C-alpha cells in the first residue's frame, strides 16, 4: 500500500445517494483519510471553501446545482483535485467535466480499489509536498534527491529513467497509454519515435529485475501499468 499520510489529508465526498457516500466514507476513513460529506451542490461549494480539501469526489447529478457547476465554482475558489462520478459512460460528459477543471473521471458502478488508486495518483501529482518520500510497495521515491530505491537498494537511473519510473509508480494500478507516457515524461515537443517508451520500459525492467513483467505489466494494445 502507498504511504502518503505523513500529513492529514482531507477529502470531500459529494453525492445525493447516501449509500454511496457512506460506502466511500467508510473505505477512505479506514485508509486514514479525513472525510467530509455533502449531499447537494450548494453545501458542497460552501464546505469546499471552508475546508479547502485536497480531493473532492463529485457526482454530476445533484439536486439544485449540478456537478459541472459545482466543479467550475470550486476550481475558481480553491486549489484541489476533483474526481467526477457519473452513471453515464458518455464521452461528451467526460470532456465537459475535464474542460471545467475536473482532474479525473469515474463511471458508476466503480470499485473502491480503483477509486483509491486514482485518489493517490491525484495526491502525488497535485500535492507532492505532503511527504518527502513516497513509498509505493517496495519502492521509495525521494523526489528531493531525485532517487528511487527498490527493496532498500538504490537504483542507478538516468534522468529519463527516473522520470518514467516515478510516473509509473505514482500511477500504480492505472493503465497508461504510450502517448500519455510520452507527453508526461518526454514532453509535448518530443518528435522521436513512439517505441522509445518500449525501449525505456525494457531498461527499467532490467534494473529492477522484473524478468517476468510482474511489476511493470504490458496491457496489450493500450500501454503499461505498474502493479505493486
TrEMBL record:
<protein>
    <recommendedName>
        <fullName>Stage 0 sporulation protein A homolog</fullName>
    </recommendedName>
</protein>
<keyword id="KW-0805">Transcription regulation</keyword>
<dbReference type="Pfam" id="PF00072">
    <property type="entry name" value="Response_reg"/>
</dbReference>
<dbReference type="InterPro" id="IPR039420">
    <property type="entry name" value="WalR-like"/>
</dbReference>
<feature type="domain" description="OmpR/PhoB-type">
    <location>
        <begin position="131"/>
        <end position="228"/>
    </location>
</feature>
<dbReference type="InterPro" id="IPR036388">
    <property type="entry name" value="WH-like_DNA-bd_sf"/>
</dbReference>
<dbReference type="Pfam" id="PF00486">
    <property type="entry name" value="Trans_reg_C"/>
</dbReference>
<dbReference type="GO" id="GO:0000156">
    <property type="term" value="F:phosphorelay response regulator activity"/>
</dbReference>
<keyword id="KW-0597">Phosphoprotein</keyword>
<keyword id="KW-0238">DNA-binding</keyword>
<dbReference type="GO" id="GO:0006355">
    <property type="term" value="P:regulation of DNA-templated transcription"/>
</dbReference>
<feature type="modified residue" description="4-aspartylphosphate">
    <location>
        <position position="59"/>
    </location>
</feature>
<dbReference type="InterPro" id="IPR001867">
    <property type="entry name" value="OmpR/PhoB-type_DNA-bd"/>
</dbReference>
<comment type="function">
    <text>May play the central regulatory role in sporulation. It may be an element of the effector pathway responsible for the activation of sporulation genes in response to nutritional stress. Spo0A may act in concert with spo0H (a sigma factor) to control the expression of some genes that are critical to the sporulation process.</text>
</comment>
<dbReference type="GO" id="GO:0032993">
    <property type="term" value="C:protein-DNA complex"/>
</dbReference>
<keyword id="KW-0804">Transcription</keyword>
<dbReference type="InterPro" id="IPR011006">
    <property type="entry name" value="CheY-like_superfamily"/>
</dbReference>
<keyword id="KW-0902">Two-component regulatory system</keyword>
<dbReference type="GO" id="GO:0000976">
    <property type="term" value="F:transcription cis-regulatory region binding"/>
</dbReference>
<dbReference type="InterPro" id="IPR001789">
    <property type="entry name" value="Sig_transdc_resp-reg_receiver"/>
</dbReference>
<feature type="domain" description="Response regulatory">
    <location>
        <begin position="10"/>
        <end position="123"/>
    </location>
</feature>
<dbReference type="GO" id="GO:0005829">
    <property type="term" value="C:cytosol"/>
</dbReference>
<feature type="DNA-binding region" description="OmpR/PhoB-type">
    <location>
        <begin position="131"/>
        <end position="228"/>
    </location>
</feature>
Amino acid at each position: 500500500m502507498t504511504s502518503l499520510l505523513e500529513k492529514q489529508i482531507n477529502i470531500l465526498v459529494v453525492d445525493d445517494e447516501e449509500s454511496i457516500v457512506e460506502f466511500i466514507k467508510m473505505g477512505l476513513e479506514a485508509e486514514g483519510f479525513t472525510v467530509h460529506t455533502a449531499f447537494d451542490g450548494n453545501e458542497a461549494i460552501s464546505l469546499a471553501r471552508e475546508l479547502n480539501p485536497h480531493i473532492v469526489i463529485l457526482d454530476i447529478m445533484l439536486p439544485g446545482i449540478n456537478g459541472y457547476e459545482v466543479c467550475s465554482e470550486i476550481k475558481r475558489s480553491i486549489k484541489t483535485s476533483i474526481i467526477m462520478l457519473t452513471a453515464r459512460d458518455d464521452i461528451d460528459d467526460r470532456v465537459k467535466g475535464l474542460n471545467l477543471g475536473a482532474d479525473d473521471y469515474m463511471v458508476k458502478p466503480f470499485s473502491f480499489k480503483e477509486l483509491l488508486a486514482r485518489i493517490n495518483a491525484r495526491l502525488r501529482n497535485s500535492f507532492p509536498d505532503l511527504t518527502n518520500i513516497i513509498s509505493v510497495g517496495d519502492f521509495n521515491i525521494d523526489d528531493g534527491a531525485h532517487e528511487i530505491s527498490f527493496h532498500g537498494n538504490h537504483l542507478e537511473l538516468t534522468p529519463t529513467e527516473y522520470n518514467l519510473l516515478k510516473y509509473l509508480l505514482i500511477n500504480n494500478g492505472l493503465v497508461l497509454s504510450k502517448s500519455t507516457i510520452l507527453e508526461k515524461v518526454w514532453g509535448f515537443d518530443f518528435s522521436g519515435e513512439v517505441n522509445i517508451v518500449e525501449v525505456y520500459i525494457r531498461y527499467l525492467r532490467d534494473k529492477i529485475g522484473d524478468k517476468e513483467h510482474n511489476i511493470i505489466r504490458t496491457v496489450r494494445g493500450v500501454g503499461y501499468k505498474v502493479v505493486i
